[in-house]
Structures are given as C-alpha cells and as structure tokens.
Specification:
With about 375 residues, this protein is of the alpha/beta class. It is built from twelve helices and eleven strands. About 30% of the residues lie in helices and about 15% in strands. The protein starts with a helix and ends in a 7-residue tail after the last helix.
Length: about 375
Amino acid sequence: MGTATSTMAAKLAFFPPNPPSYTVVTDESTGKMRISAEMMRHRRDEEIEVVKIMTRRGNEIVGMYIKHPTAKLTVLYSHGNATDIGQMFIIYNELSHHLNVNLMGYDYSGYGRSSGKPSEQETYADIEAAYNWLRETCSTKDERIILYGQSVGSGPSLELASRLPRLRALVLHSPFLSGLRVMYHVKHSFWFDIFKNIEKIQLVDCPVLVIHGTDDKVVDISHGKQLWELSKEKYEPLWLKGGSHCNLEMFPEYLPHLRKFIGAIEKLPVPQFRRHSVSDDHKKDKQQLDPKKSSSWIGSRHSTECVTSRDNSRKMNIGHRSGKARNSTDSFDRARNSFDRLGEMVRSVRLCNVDCVKNAVAEA
C-alpha cells in the first residue's frame, strides 16, 4: 500500500521543472559551491551557502542557506510544485531581507539538481535532512526554527512539525487537508490518500499561521480554514481577498502580516514544552486530542495578537508600500508549458506555485 501511495503522489502531486533552472558549480580556489542562477548575481557569496545533503533514503538534495546578519530566527522553507531553489531565490532573498531571518530552502528529491525521484515519503526524508543540517552545521535549536510550507510543501512541513515539540512556529501557505480532499469532498481518510495534513495538524504544539487566498481555484480556502480551526495554537490568519493559489506574495498585506507574526514570535519567551521524545510525540493517540479543550495562543498566555477559534479575525491596519513585480524568466514559462499538456483533472491537483515565482515579493 505504501508503494501505491507513493505512485499516486508522484503522478498527481509532483512536477519538477524540466530542465532545472540552475546548475551547481564549485569554485576551484575555495572549494565553495554556488548556484549558477542569473538572479543570484546581486548577492554576495559570503551571504549564501549552497550545500548538498544526503537523505536517510539515499538521495542527495541541494539546499541554499541565506544568512541574515541580525537574524534571531531561521525559516526552513518547503516550496510548492513546478519550481526549484534557483527560481525561488528572489522570494527567499526578499523574505530573508524584509523579515530579518536566516532562510534555508531546499529542493525535493528529483527537483532541481537533487537526485532521486519525488514521492511523499521522499519529501519527508528531504525536509528531515535539511532540518538536521541546520541543527548540526549551524547549531540552530528547534525553538529558533520556523517551518514554512507552501502548497505541496505544507505536507513535509506538517509531517516534521508534528514530531518537533519544541518547534518555534509553523506557517502554512495555501495548504490542503490531504491530496485526495483537493479532488473530492470526502469525510474520512483512505489508505491511498497522500499528505494527510488534516490528521497531523492536531499533533502540532507550536503557534500556527495560515495564509490562503479567497479565490483559490486549486485548493479551496476551506482547506486553510479547517486546518486553522484544528490548530491548537492559533495565530491570526491571513485570508487574502481575491487571492488565488499562486499570487499571494504580491498582495500588500502579505509581508506586513508575516512581519507582525515574526515580531510576535521573537518577543515570546521560550515556552516550557512538555518533556517527551520526538517519537513519543509522533505516536500520540489522536483520539485524545480535543480541539475544544486544547489551549489557544491568547493574550494571557502569549500575545494579544493571537485569537481562539471563537474569535473573528481582526481587520489589519498596517501601513505598507506597494512594490513592483520583477519580470519572469523563460524557465518559468517552460515550467508552465509542461502543465498545459496534462489535462484539467491533473492540473486541479498540481499544487504548484509557478505563478508565485514569476514575480518577486512586493517590497514593503
């Protein structure tokens, strides 16, 4: 059954860009690796570290670590479909700069210059390898890590978050309840379903921010709203009116809300998490979790900017400046063209962010 699940995931959820948007080259004088993407020419080499990491399933994935000089937190970003870290660099760079965070991006197995073939289980091993690299190489503690999962990236992000009781925070960007639920309205999970986020969200102990567009035609906003409702530690969500599946970064509310979230997270004292192992946390009986009885991230405990499931989302009143979108590259168009040949049903579950990476994050 596991093989069938992986096969379904590969057919319906994974579309690596072909060809990859970058190559990895090594400086002969220093031995340092870098990505030969044209868009990286404006960034100094010492601010970016390109690495190859071996996963527990035997694949070698490519990662990119952007260091911010004043960062207190590190974002581990799991990107959407039909893209790679070469195409995502502009967004990574903008987020690191405007949020004052270190940022680690990585390519799933079979994406970019990472070896292997993509599958659900491979993505779990991929994010685990990137996380271990942050822990071992950068000495980054769990309480300083924010997992960010966009679209299909919400799957590996939630899988890892469900096993890390000391994780600082989780951001879910256009997430879905499960792969099958994107296509059909089903009430129960089936063995052949993939990325069962609806079950794992109840195991996450850290604050959760959900971002979703109201006009998302790929993953309906009801997915994001239900995941937010099931979160134990809720942060004020961002429902972007008129937002689709692939353009949320371009909305003027996007960066200010993320900055607000990061600011609140930075000010929180490190919570006194319960003492148990990661494996124990992962095996927790889901039937013992009652969302109505679980604690919410509210003023008396953390911050007045947090809400419970009974609260209405407050209207944001944050000043911002509109930004200009950067021009897309031919590689993005090639990735888009690969989708057009697949038919409406498969496109409905592609869980991609091609349109997102065609534009840079709006400056704020």
